[in-house]
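User: Could you check the structure of this?
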Amino acid sequence: MAWSLKKKKADYLENSITEGVIWKTLLSFFFPILLGTFFQQMYNTVDAIIVGKFVGKEALAAVGGTTGSIINLIVGFFTGLASGATVILSQYYGGRKYKEVGQTVHTAFAMAIAGGLLIMAFGLVMAPAMLRMLDTPEDIMAYSLRYLRIYFAGMVPSLIYNIGSGLLRAVGDSRRPLFFLIIACMTNVVLDVVFVVGLEMHVAGAALATILSQLVSAVLVSVTLMRSGTAYRLELKKIRFHAEQLKRIVTIGLPAGLQSMAYSVSNAIVQTSINGFGTDVVAAYTAYGKLDAFNWMLQGAFGVSITTFAGQNFGARQYERVKKGVRVCLAMSAAATLVLSGFLLLTGETLYRLFTDDPVVVELGMKMLKLLAPVFVLYVCIEIFSGALRGAGDSVRPTIITLSGVCALRMLWLLVIVPMNRTLDMVLYCYPLTWTVTSLLFVLYYYRSGWMKRCIHKAGLDRPLEEN
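Assistant: Sure, the predicted structure tokens are below.
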């Protein structure tokens, strides 16, 4: 028992992010998370490149366009809900509450298994209805339905990987999830070539390659947690729901899940508007989405980094360090986003031709990129402030801000303003408009609302240390 406690304390010190130079600490998390997100994105990107080149633009539109909106809607809700486990684990780990660490890990895995089975069943049954609701063009309907059903069949391993990698990052291990994703991505590339090109399975082959690759990553992350000799070790016989941990996870994660779902609903309305312009525009928007994903990977990596950083430091009562970390992360994220925007504008046409040689699709894609890439930086405040607030346990109010400023306003624009002048540009203007409004709301909330005092009181950290 004494050895076990010492081992847990040593593990804590090894992975602690509650001391040291802040920008170095953040970057030590940022780069593995960024690369991991990049390789995760490569699943669908490789699918899109191969089916676009070897099957056609209809298959390209199906793999990344309409199906992506549906997948993000359903899977995004669970991923947001499960993010509560990452926040809770980082706070427990920062506060050295090892019993609660173990309970959180096993509760999170129970959520992944149950959630995966529910999403699989729902997706398999409702796929046709969801595609029709998005006004999917008839020439890509069969492709979209085939891809979607196979993808949903692999939900359990997908959610297990997402949960497991999030738990590892919460305790400071962002490297092993990266290695697992690299392995899975390479598996996906090989299987894509075999199934799509070699066996001519077309869209079904791309979907099958994706879910088999996700199975590989799920096995790797699960085995790693099972072999860990630490407080966050996974034991299969202990996987179950712990009421207190489940309550805390849902309290923090449910607003994030609803936020993700609302994002997806608003983006699905965008996709529906895009679908109305025909297959060429859908294909161009699909390819643009793959380039746009680099921006979300970049900002998302900073967001995950500051959430983990804020969670552990908040749990350790290092409140000023939390605030300083937010300032540093804002500056780094803004600078990196501006560099990325410039790079995409300079190389966009070459990148588009990775997906398709159709000149009309490339031209439309460049039009989208030139309109939106220069304003990517507007989203930085939303990602960093919401990540830090969530790390400290404040998830409801930031969700309300996001739902109002991004989702509700975007839907209002698309459903009321766009019909007055139905052009592609008018549809796309919803992004910079809502990013600007929501960023201003987050700045006001972060600096004027007294959120830190509320979080400290809610977590019981305003009591003497020996009482916690």
